[in-house]
Amino acid sequence: MIELQHVAYSYGGGELFSDLSLSLAPGSFHFLTGPSGSGKTTLLKLCYAELKATSGDVQIFGEDVRSMERDRVALARRRIGVVHQDCQFLDHLPLSENVALPLTVAGRGGELGQDLTDLLAWVGLTRQAGQLPPELSGGERQRAALARAVIMSPEVIIADEPTGNIDWEMSQRLLALLVELNRMGKAVLIATHDLQLIRAAKAQVQARVLRLKDRRLQAAGADL
Ligand SMILES: Nc1ncnc2c1ncn2[C@@H]1O[C@H](COP(=O)(O)OP(=O)(O)OP(=O)(O)O)[C@@H](O)[C@H]1O
């Protein structure tokens, strides 16, 4: 689904990483760890074609990102649900409309209804559907961001520090949702510093743990 081969990336200075290869197959579950500043967010952005590799090949759903026109990139992006690190919302719109925004933007707002209700129930936010984003807790925002990322039924879920600012119980809840999505056959890629979360996930799902360090991507040690 998403293939990176011998990829390097630089923001203009030295290379952040090089000769990096990664393959996200249907139904796979990957964690990406590594020190702050090692390039985890950058690597995720390469996976959803927000950035283009400085060198090497990136293929998304069989297409070479370098030669994809903008509309092809936009179409491919609809098949990838992204939970961003800062999970921003439109603060003047209620939670339910924020979650539904990708469908509305795609001109499919008419399909809303029971699916949205079900999705909000799935992430445990039925009661908060009418609230504005500034009125939500950190954990509620993270779950809303996940709901928004999956409303288009993506085949791949990419989450950047999804449990960054939430307590352990809420992290567990979020992890359970991601594991459930994976069991439905979706590929999941999560960047995180949270080693406890990785250990908890490994008890539930066959996850590969990758570590970005010293400009290289390696399989993490067996202790994880
Ligand atoms: N738009 C940008 N322009 C220039 N440099 C950038 C840009 N975005 C990120 N960087 C730099 O690239 C490096 C990697 O950033 P990135 O956010 O990918 O790391 P990270 O591993 O996700 O970090 P963290 O764990 O702290 O979120 C950092 O040194 C960062 O300052």
From TrEMBL:
InterPro entries xref list: AAA+_ATPase (IPR003593), ABC_transporter-like_ATP-bd (IPR003439), ABC_transporter-like_CS (IPR017871), ABC_transpr_LolD-like (IPR015854), P-loop_NTPase (IPR027417)
Matches recorded under SUPFAM superfamilies: P-loop containing nucleoside triphosphate hydrolases (SSF52540)
Keyword presence, Iron-sulfur: no
Keyword Amino-acid biosynthesis recorded: no
Family annotation (Pfam families): ABC_tran
Molecular function GO labels: ATP binding; ATP hydrolysis activity; transmembrane transporter activity
Domain ABC transporter: 2-224
UniProt keywords, alphabetically: ATP-binding, Cell cycle, Cell division, Nucleotide-binding
GO biological process: cell division
SMART domains: AAA (SM00382)
PROSITE patterns: ABC_TRANSPORTER_1, ABC_TRANSPORTER_2
One Gene Ontology cellular component annotation held by this UniProt entry: plasma membrane
PANTHER family associated with the record: CELL DIVISION ATP-BINDING PROTEIN FTSE (PTHR24220:SF470), IMPORT ATP-BINDING PROTEIN (PTHR24220)
Protein name in the entry: Cell division ATP-binding protein FtsE
Organism classification: Bacteria, Pseudomonadati, Pseudomonadota, Alphaproteobacteria, Rhodobacterales
